[in-house]
Amino acid sequence: MMIEEDDMYKKYDGYSVEDLLSDDYFICSMITPTDESISFWKEILQRKTVHPDDYHLACYLLDSLQVCEEPVSVVEIEDIWNNILRENKGNLAVKRKNKVAKRILYWSLSGIASLLLCLSLSHIYPGRPASVAVLSIEEVKAPETPVTEDIHLVLSEHETMKLDGQDAEIVYNKESIAVKEGAAVRDKKIKRQQKQAGGNEAVTYNQLIVPNGKRSTLIFEDGSKMWVNAGTRVVYPVCFAEEKREIYIEGEAYFEISQDVNRPFVVKAKNFDLNVLGTSFNVMAYEKDAVQHVVLVSGKLEIHAQNQEETILSPDEMFLSLNGVTQVRKVDVSDYISWTHGMYQYKSDSLDLIMKRLSRYYGVEIVCEPVVAHLKFSGKLDLKDDLNGVLSGVSRTSPIDYHWKDSVFIITNK
User: Considering the entire predicted model, what is its pTM?
Assistant: First the structure.
């Protein structure tokens, strides 16, 4: 079989999923593979001519469609290849040959539905077989209706538990979820992962959404514990996988992770990923905040930030990310985890930053006038007091005043 390989490699440069599914040679290679075609596509992936995610997703989609039993001969594959090469000499666009395509596969209504659904996925976990597409945890969407007042535990697309009170504790056991709201306790049966055809597990994700003014505690089946601060969304599987324990967070939480050397705990955020074994640490990764950080209390953390080398964090160190620029510094970790005990410690922080944190914690809008926004303060606030009491205490010991107007606290110069 005579193949002009360089032309073929160039032809596939930048091919998308849709391009591959419209390509005769790709379809033939997947349905009737030969040693030569296997070697060719392996080289394509090594050269990164086609993005691996696009290639694997195209393989999955093709595998999802109904394929006819009649095999395609090597002679026909060679004929397709040579015809494509002739067409590509003047134009790299591929013209699909309907006669051969119709012999290869037919598209049922269910196949088309599967295609439309799966084309919305852009990531496949590395190392998984090409026939298994998995929605990555970062891609799990928040509910379309914004959560504004109550804590919400989203169990599925059609089932959400609304939790009462300022704080709620959620405990995962082997067969159920225990939700503690004050003195009341509710039990909910867990919907376990289901086995798909081929023995692969369909991952079921839950979400905990804590609005401004509320907090929650989340205890996983392995005993790992999260203290979830106000304005935070956590995405996690109902059951952790055998090879790793993985969650996604937007917001702030303090973690105490149960050690399991065979299953590292992975915390994903928008700008970085954390690999954990047995560790306690605080993550602040609000999506709208320019500054995000990780503070390590005990243990060891591996941090993978976008387009940067791995950072190893030691106890009493903070990993700081500001608009993609990162640094590591020594800190007093108690300043960053005191919120879990109902206290807020700050050292040389701007009044604007302090009030932003109080606004999020209490769920009430606070606005600083420009003349006082950049004043620096150090101190400690008792968050168990109501917000009016906290602001009153701040105003007695600093040159600021405050008043209530149109449902907003306004901070002014005394």
Answer: 0.65
Query: Which residues make beta-bridge pairs with 366?
Result: 409
Q: Is 315 exposed, middle or buried (0-12, 13-18, 19+ CB in 10 A)?
A: middle
Tell me how far apart the alpha carbons of residues 126 and 116 are, in angstroms, rounded to a whole number.
Answer: 23
Q: Tens-of-pLDDT digits for all 414 residues of the chain?
A: 334 455 667 788 888 877 888 787 888 787 777 878 888 888 888 888 888 878 877 776 666 553 444 445 555 555 665 665 565 544 444 434 443 443 444 343 334 334 443 444 433 333 333 333 345 888 888 887 777 788 999 987 678 888 888 888 999 987 788 888 776 777 777 665 443 334 445 578 899 999 999 999 999 999 999 999 999 999 999 888 888 899 999 999 999 999 888 899 999 998 899 999 789 999 999 988 888 999 999 999 999 987 778 899 999 999 998 877 889 999 999 999 999 999 999 988 999 999 999 999 999 999 999 999 999 999 999 998 999 999 999 999 889 999 999 999 999 998
Distance (Å, whole) CA 353 – CA 375: 10
In contact, 267 and 283? CB cutoff 8 Å? yes
Backbone angles phi, psi at 56, to 5 degrees: -65, -35
Instruction: Give the phi and the psi of residue 324 in degrees, each rounded to 5.
Output: 90, -10
